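Fig. S4 source data, part A: sequence.
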Amino acid sequence: MNDLKLAQLQSSWAKHLYARLLHFGGHIRETDVPPSPMEARKADIALQCALRPAVFGELGGFRPEETNRHTSWWGGCFLGAPGESIPIGRSGKPMHPLLQVRTDEIDILVPGIENYALLTLWIDLDGNLFEPVAGMDFSVFTHQTLEDLVPLGVGYRESEILPTFPICWQKAVDQQPSWQDFAFKVPSRVAWSDTSEWFGNNPIVRRDYELKSSCPVKLGGWPTWIQGSQWETTEDDEDFVLQVDTTPKGRVGFGDSGSIYLFRQKRSGNWLLRCDFF
């Protein structure tokens, strides 16, 4: 079963059960009354208002400048401030350089990192990525400027653990939320309805899964949940920054074909990493 078909089935199941639980305090309630044209229109407007721009990133796809660390990289070729050191993980070993993002290479401002020129994400592949703790299982470094940054960690093809690829960023596209992040925003009778084409089988969803199949990195947009929404509080308290999917090409896996999601708390500025998988 491909990802798009699975998403459609998940959307249909979620709409049938989750929305009823949501709207009726945990009591499943059926209705034979279809949504009115006005209610359907309100749901469509709510969906359009919920769209957020996202940029997907492909690993490689073009000849890299092997000595150019001042760009986006996977698996190495990272930069750091003078005196900055590779973080040590829960395992007691140095963390691995997973993803470096140069923000001026993408054509959107990503909430949470809009004031930074560079972000680097380090992970402890031997740590606990299912319940990751900042500073133990992952670390995030940010820099407001590219000036005076120096090489940090392994360079091009110097690691036996992760391959090194430059990131090929795609053009920005609109992305819609997962149903669990959206059900409460539509009229109840729309949420009750078993008709899911308007939400789970539209051009935005099809394009999203086409990009996801070849691009394991995503900046901005919405988290593409697998088992269900995992906001710690609400989307008003956290910025969703990026998502990294299981990728054979990048030699990284999270559970059973899962993903990791990086958030930043708006008030404290703390980083949160979550994992979701089949």
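Fig. S4 source data, part B ends here. Residues 8-30 have pLDDT under 50 and may be disordered.
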